[in-house]
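COMPLEX REQUEST
Ligand: flavin-adenine dinucleotide
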Amino acid sequence: MLAHANLVIFQALCYDARALSGETMSPSSPPSIHDLSARVIENRDLGASHFLLTLQAEPVAAAACPGQFAMLRFAGRMDPLLPRPMSISDVLPADGSHPVLLQILHKVVGRGTQLLAALKPGERLQVLGPLGKPFSVPSPVAPGSQALMVAGGIGVAIFPFLVPMLQRAGLKPVLLFGARSSRELVRKDWFARQGVEVRTATEDGSEGAKGFVTTLLQEALGSSPEVAIVYACGPQAMLKAVGEMLIASGVSAQLSLESYMGCGIGACLGCVVKVRRDSGFAYARICVEGPTFPASEVLW
Amino acid sequence: MLAHANLVIFQALCYDARALSGETMSPSSPPSIHDLSARVIENRDLGASHFLLTLQAEPVAAAACPGQFAMLRFAGRMDPLLPRPMSISDVLPADGSHPVLLQILHKVVGRGTQLLAALKPGERLQVLGPLGKPFSVPSPVAPGSQALMVAGGIGVAIFPFLVPMLQRAGLKPVLLFGARSSRELVRKDWFARQGVEVRTATEDGSEGAKGFVTTLLQEALGSSPEVAIVYACGPQAMLKAVGEMLIASGVSAQLSLESYMGCGIGACLGCVVKVRRDSGFAYARICVEGPTFPASEVLW
Amino acid sequence: MKAAPRLEVQLGPLKLKNPIITASGTFGYGTEFLPFVDLSRLGGICVKGLSLSPRKGNAPPRTFETPAGMINAIGLANVGVEEFVRSKLPALRPYGTAIIANVFGETVEEYAEVARIASTGEGLAALEINISCPNTERGGMVFGCDPDGTRRVVSAVRKVTSLPLIVKLTPNVTDIVSIARVAVDAGADILSLVNTFLGIAVDVSRRRLVLANGVGGVSGPAIKPQALYLVHRVCRELQVPVIGMGGIMNVSDALEFMLVGARAIQIGTANFIDPASSVKILDGLLQALDHLGIEDVNEMVGALKTDGPSQDFST
Amino acid sequence: MKAAPRLEVQLGPLKLKNPIITASGTFGYGTEFLPFVDLSRLGGICVKGLSLSPRKGNAPPRTFETPAGMINAIGLANVGVEEFVRSKLPALRPYGTAIIANVFGETVEEYAEVARIASTGEGLAALEINISCPNTERGGMVFGCDPDGTRRVVSAVRKVTSLPLIVKLTPNVTDIVSIARVAVDAGADILSLVNTFLGIAVDVSRRRLVLANGVGGVSGPAIKPQALYLVHRVCRELQVPVIGMGGIMNVSDALEFMLVGARAIQIGTANFIDPASSVKILDGLLQALDHLGIEDVNEMVGALKTDGPSQDFST
Ligand SMILES: Cc1cc2nc3c(=O)[nH]c(=O)nc-3n(C[C@H](O)[C@H](O)[C@H](O)COP(=O)(O)OP(=O)(O)OC[C@H]3O[C@@H](n4cnc5c(N)ncnc54)[C@H](O)[C@@H]3O)c2cc1C
Ligand SMILES: Cc1cc2nc3c(=O)[nH]c(=O)nc-3n(C[C@H](O)[C@H](O)[C@H](O)COP(=O)(O)OP(=O)(O)OC[C@H]3O[C@@H](n4cnc5c(N)ncnc54)[C@H](O)[C@@H]3O)c2cc1C
Ligand SMILES: Cc1cc2nc3c(=O)[nH]c(=O)nc-3n(C[C@H](O)[C@H](O)[C@H](O)COP(=O)(O)O)c2cc1C
Ligand SMILES: Cc1cc2nc3c(=O)[nH]c(=O)nc-3n(C[C@H](O)[C@H](O)[C@H](O)COP(=O)(O)O)c2cc1C
Ligand code: FES
Ligand code: FES
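STATUS: Structure written out below.
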């Protein structure tokens, strides 16, 4: 198993922590969960069925940490029935006209995301969050060492919120971003503007390396400078491949997993993944024990 | 049973007939039914949960006759599942910017009408129609004789489309309009502007006579000038009372009935009402044999 | 240019030009749908359930909407089998589509007599017997809810008809497979399932059951997972051809039923939501097969993969 | 000022401060809901089904959305009855709410042993036995699907506990009343119904069943008409106190179950949609009773009017 000793987990007030200048990042009691009716501020069409939804959901945004998610639902609807889990893609600092805002980056794949895509400014959406175990950031780190963010497709959604945390911890964030084609490399320029080095791969070769993001990862792990930690989010097949590469390489890695979810709060036991426990295995709930797991824990 | 001999039924091209100047109103083959995706042109909030929805649904509007209805549904939704029957409240003549338009006047009572109320211009709604048996208009009529339109609450929705037909047939239309309170006497002024005499009753006495619309009807039947025909639409209890008064008075009358509907096209046999047939009774489908029935036929 | 996928399916003695059938009670006597559907395109049409004498049906209200479904207690209103043979069947014959007469009775003898008369109808493709009908001779127990009732009805009908015999099963039983087996042993060529699930609706403000009949049958998308389960079970346990139905609204639903083993499917409640559902699903099927590169729809029948994780049917 | 409506209900030996109970398997061990629900306000909490040994449950996927419902095959994952008594029950005790242990086994002896151990738990208000569990000794036949299995389980449990005994019925039977009667004869103080309906989900693109277990249980609004029907039937036929459930999402649904005769109700899937559903429904109930001018919630129990049109239960 991965040693957790050198990882500091931001379990509380990550948004506030981000606003602080110092390095006062110590674990504390779990953040409170809020269930509120959020107003849509903006729902930007990024093309290729991707949308960036900005919500006024201050208590959720203020309590959120990178890697956490929220359950989104349309109040009063009986079909689709279940809330949809979505990563908290970013929180925007308060300005004069708005308090802290919450951002969700999503891709239309079915009925729930179709409804999300149709939301217009002023409309409302029920938001339950923040939920799940955040990413953890290693500390201290060797000067100049890298943190790789490996994104497959819409998996990129989870990373914007993580970037400033990594930077504050003294890590150099690098985004390895794979997608089917150039059009699906959404928010790439945003990362670049934050000073993140972005390397891309597309299956159709329309941009960056032709092939899968795992090729980029292989290269990055092979070359200097030192990679302190790897974060990955994307389709299960990709996560499995990434996880195996990282266990082989010995670099510590955190995977963000997905699953159908009933409740999002640990009650239905629906969202499990097989994980290594003691000598055998256990089913861990992705919504509570995850969605972030050390790569070495997950038994596919 | 009511004699049908002196009733001419406009079964075809009622909208076009209305545009004609002459009296060429002869029965013809049944109108065709259309199922189309209609664009919302306007959805006007009339207060007291009433909305006037204007749709671009030209083929339906062009084929419609007063008294008919349409089935409205939200394509792709599984809940609420069934389409909602709504009277064709009016059709608006084509102008430079729009072809013939369809109007629906509805009141929010449940989930379907809530969805209708939330429609915004540019959005789409599936419309199946025109459906059902239209009102019929007596011909010839004694000069100066009246046609009473008895409306209970949202039952008024069915009458705007009927007004010009009555006027063209040489009848003087009078609207007897009952509602809970003054705020629910929607579109009253519209009728007045069309030259319809409007008499009102409210249960709380906030406008017109205090009490039920049946009081207005009793008065109207008792006084001259001659009432050639009565049309009624409203809650079942009101229709029953109106029907009984009219059978007693001998004035010919047509009631527009409502029911839960499955299909609207005669296939499910769900929407029946008990009617007099031969020596016994039968169940007639409101969506096909109705919604308009001679008062004397209905067995409550 | 590629040829269009082949859609013809064979269910024992019954050949259909495609697997799309409209379900009994949801498609009138067919002609109601002329403004919306080219009847000649359908694989089959099951007409409203027929009885010996005409029936008026139940008092209203007869239908009500439920979450993602509806509940009905029409009371099997119909014109009677003789009138069907005389006037309804001839009107459908010209379309060259398999016409299936859905029949029922309140006694075994009535079932047989209705079936016999229906079978005299020229051009009828098959009989579908609705065994979800209460046996008035035995205290109202539904025939299809016990093996004995099922056996007696099916055998009696089998004796009076040489038409392909479809037995339509009720889902309101503990063990549908045992009933299915009895139906096949008694002479069914084909099984169709499911009929509606028993349900009620309550009007809180009036403190009454909504339907005048009290209880009704639930249909529509709400019942799809249950219907799929029952079709899958019957297809796994028996070799008989199966027609699947219950909540089919689109081509994906139709393919789900075919993958678990149904050779044809029936479209019921969907006809009320969009009267052109049946042909839209047919068009969707052609497109889907074409898209998947499948040349014959029969390749989809029972094509569910069952390797991999256990698929234990005991829980 | 008017007094608030009285909410206390008595179910045989079990008194609840109000009729709102959270359903087994949908409310964890209670504490998961501390951020959303003041547990002390609930009438009762049914914990996740407990077995003799801890169970890991089924492989994923375990849940899937269906039209207006969901399907689950969790596989009865739980910490085991001993761990429940040791750590989970004490955490719930301070809230002064009736804690109900839902128990099951794969043999009659296991049922009895789990029930015996659960009954040692201090402060437990009642046992609910889930008889929708396959009997591993008899080829996986579900205990609650036949009268004999039901009788044996209920009698065995009755012998080892003096706690109020709730028997939770499966809806997947031809005649729920006969099973209910056996349960009562064998010693049930209270019946609760319904458990989930059997169903499957099919993934067309992968040509597989979605759930790793294959079959699962359907819950949520989709099943409400069917659940209401079964609760109504049992309440009409038997005098035993009944706890109703199946798709209750709001106060209107809750009142529907009470009108047909349920003295208390359980909230299941709704807890997943909005974790505060249980208390919101409780608040809604208070408001509704107040609005209707009803002083005691018991006035609603079985208050369905049955005069007027016939309410025939045979069709
Ligand atoms: C912790 C977590 C965080 C997530 N973050 C994001 C995010 O930031 N942006 C984003 O676009 N998506 C995210 N997802 C995935 C997202 O929840 C699903 O894509 C979404 O629920 C699909 O909803 P739908 O109604 O559009 O699709 P549905 O109508 O439910 O189904 C459409 C298709 O999507 C698939 N699907 C449905 N639900 C899931 C699921 N939970 N996981 C995987 N596949 C699913 C099904 O296989 C189906 O074919 C996340 C999932 C989890 C568990
Ligand atoms: C031929 C016909 C024409 C109609 N024309 C109009 C119209 O022009 N304007 C208008 O506002 N309404 C009209 N109605 C009534 C309208 O169809 C219902 O009010 C509507 O379906 C309710 O939908 P909902 O989803 O909002 O309510 P639901 O969520 O279904 O139910 C809310 C309440 O409305 C009642 N209800 C539901 N459906 C009906 C129904 N069909 N008839 C009576 N009560 C019902 C129920 O008792 C329930 O309590 C018409 C009905 C028919 C049959
Ligand atoms: C209004 C209505 C009437 C029905 N009448 C009959 C009938 O007469 N005979 C019959 O065998 N099934 C009848 N059914 C059952 C359907 O044929 C079908 O089995 C059931 O509705 C499930 O399919 P669905 O969910 O696609 O509607 C009826 C269903 C509905 C909704
Ligand atoms: C995810 C899930 C897990 C469940 N686990 C159990 C269980 O362990 N024991 C039990 O008796 N019922 C269990 N049930 C059934 C519920 O308690 C309830 O009977 C059923 O879901 C119907 O109610 P609903 O529609 O309100 O959810 C479970 C239901 C769900 C959805
Ligand atoms: S989604 Fe319910 S336990 Fe995770
Ligand atoms: S609504 Fe179906 S027959 Fe009238």
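REMARKS: Confidence is low (pLDDT under 50) at residues 309-315 of chain C. Residues A 69, 80, 84-87, 89, 105-107, 109-113, 154, 157, 258-261, 291; D 65 surround flavin-adenine dinucleotide (ligand 1) (CB under 6 Å).
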